[in-house]
Design brief:
The protein is mainly beta and 99 residues long. It is 4% helix and 45% strand. It has 1 helix and 6 strands; from the N terminus they run βαβββββ. It has one helix at residues 10-13; strands at 2-3, 18-25, 35-45, 54-58, 64-71, 77-87. The strands form 2 sheets. Strands 1-6-3 form a 3-stranded antiparallel sheet. A 3-stranded antiparallel sheet has the order 2-5-4, with no helix packed on it. It is elongated. The protein starts with a strand and ends in a 12-residue tail after the last strand.
């Protein structure tokens, strides 16, 4: 999702509330907004401060969602990688659209 250690980004050098957002597009549209589950796949944080992290799927639509990672206080986050899974109904070529 990001790597702020190498270039001195705000997740590594900043303090207080911080947010990093990444837009994710589905390879195929869903019929309605799907259920999206996200998780941290890897995180690299400074051990000298508390490790505070929140990751969530936001603004979910049929076409995609925003992956949002938050931290706060004096936490220093070098890098984060996330996994996601979307589950919902997909359209089919034989579906009829009457109106």
């Amino acid at each position: 999702m990001f790597s702020d250690f190498e270039d001195g980004g705000d997740m590594w050098t900043g303090t207080g509330p911080r947010l990093r957002r990444r837009a994710v597009s589905f390879s195929e549209s869903f019929r309605s907004p799907p259920t999206v589950m996200v998780s941290l796949a890897m995180f690299d944080m400074d051990q000298k401060t508390n490790q505070r992290a929140d990751i969530a799927a936001e603004n979910i639509t049929e076409e995609g969602f925003d992956l949002a990672f938050r931290t706060w206080g004096d936490t220093r986050v070098a890098r984060v990688r996330a996994n996601w899974f979307a589950m919902g109904e997909l359209g089919h070529e034989d579906d009829w659209e009457l109106y």
